[in-house]
Amino acid sequence: MESRQKESDLIRRAARGDEKAFIELISPYQVRLLRRAHALLGSLEDAEDALQESLIMAYRSLANFRGESGIYTYVYRIVINKCHDSVRKRKRTESESLDNIPLISDERVSISKNHELSEESSYLILQINKLDKKYRQVLLMRYYDALSYQEIADLIHISVGTVKSRLFKARELLKRSIVRDGKGEEYFADMV
């Protein structure tokens, strides 16, 4: 309860132009947001740019924040939208296929170590990227971004029940794909 009150106070102060309050409000989430942007854009430099632009946008529009979700969810949505805009812009300017852009990376290791992924992590990432977008999206939001069911529902405008249903289906599809390849169920230890 106290942290919710502190967040509300920081939001009010930041909305009135207090940059220090905004920095204090956002700083606990910056690494997670950067990792998510990096996973979507495939480039650390592009991710840093997208995050910077998103934070500026969030700061400037904070007066419009209605408080229906947490501040992380609010800023997360801005970052995701900015990344999607960047991908579309890149696609138009470079005629680059979305298939060539990494969809996710292993965020359990530091960004600078991402190229040193283990064979198992690389395999799992490949299997997740093969999922239909609606299943991949909720799976990533839940297990990579550690969002609650309600936060996911708010972000993609579906019910909590639909989130749960899609997560169940995503895990089942992933499990079938991995088992079909003759791999064990050790990949699912964290998804229970």
Poorly predicted regions: 95-103, 105-109, 111-117
Number of helices: 9
Overall morphology? globular
Q: Could you state the order of secondary-structure elements as H and E?
A: HHHHHHHHH
Strand content: under 5%
The N- to C-terminal Cα distance equals 28 Å
CATH architectural arrangement of the largest domain: Orthogonal Bundle
Integer count of domains: 2
Query: Which CATH class of the largest domain?
Result: Mainly Alpha
What does this structure look like?
The chain is mainly alpha-helical and 192 residues long. It folds into two domains: 99 residues, RNA polymerase sigma factor, region 2, helix turn helix motif (Rna Polymerase Sigma Factor, Chain: A), CATH 1.10.1740.10; 90 residues, Arc Repressor Mutant, subunit A, CATH 1.10.10. Helix content is 66%, strand content 0%. The chain contains nine helices and no strands. Helix 1 packs across helix 2, helix 3 runs parallel beside helix 5 and helix 4 crosses helix 5. The two termini are 28 Å apart. About 11% of the residues have low confidence.
Q: What is this entry, summarized?
A:
66% of the residues lie in helices and 0% in strands. By secondary structure, the protein is mainly α.
Key terms:
single chain, 9 helices, Rna Polymerase Sigma Factor, Chain: A, Arc Repressor Mutant, subunit A, 2 domains, 192 residues
Present the secondary structure layout.
Layout lengths: L1 H14 L3 H8 L3 H12 L2 H17 L10 H24 L24 H11 L3 H11 L5 H8 L3 H21 L12
